[in-house]
Amino acid sequence: MVGPSLSDDERDAASFRLKLFFVVLVGASGGLIALQVDPTPLELALSVLGGLLVGWLLLVFLVRSFRQEPR
């Protein structure tokens, strides 16, 4: 029999990195979109922070939506 290739700790670490990457990607996207209109540094920082918040909210929504309910 072949068992899982990742331990529980390795799977949790990989899951955390994937979630972090998703949130950072959405946050960076907000900053890149803001660069299209020549923002001030404050506006750029607020855009990135807003993108990070939206990314975190999307992540929470996705994790809750795809959580498997015990049967």
Would you give an account of this structure?
By secondary structure, the chain is an all-alpha fold. α1 packs antiparallel against α2. The protein is elongated. It has two helices and no strands. It is 75% helix and 0% strand.
Please give the structural blueprint.
Elements: H1 8-34, H2 41-66
Helix pairs in contact: 1-2
Dominant shape: elongated
Largest sheet: none
How far do the termini sit from each other?
Answer: 26 Å
State the order of secondary-structure elements, H for helix, E for strand. Answer: HH
Note the beta-strand portion.
under 5%
Helix/strand/pairing category: mainly alpha
Number of strands: 0
Number of helices: 2
| Low-confidence residue ranges | none
* Radius of gyration over C-alpha positions, nearest whole angstrom: 17 Å
Share of helix, binned:
over 70%
* Average residue pLDDT: 91
Features:
71 residues, elongated, 75% helix, mainly alpha
Summary of the model, kept short:
With 71 residues, this protein is mainly α. It has helices at 8-34, 41-66. Helix 1 runs antiparallel to helix 2 (41-66).
